[in-house]
Amino acid sequence: MHEEQLTSRRVHCPYCDAPFDLLVDTTQGSQLTWEDCHICCAPIQVRIEVDLEDVNAFQVTLGRDDEVL
Fold it and tell me: If you average pLDDT over residues 1-5, what whole number do you get?
């Protein structure tokens, strides 16, 4: 993967509210993954929804590990 394919999105941890930059690869389409918070180490559920017609249009939703996104 080339770094120019990644898009940075500023988000906040749903546990400790620490801000961080999340790198998103929209070329893979919509996806559900997990990312550990860099401050509190809690597992964050990350849902990325990519517009099928425009991969540059996407929405990121974060949740706690036990939430259903």
Answer: 61
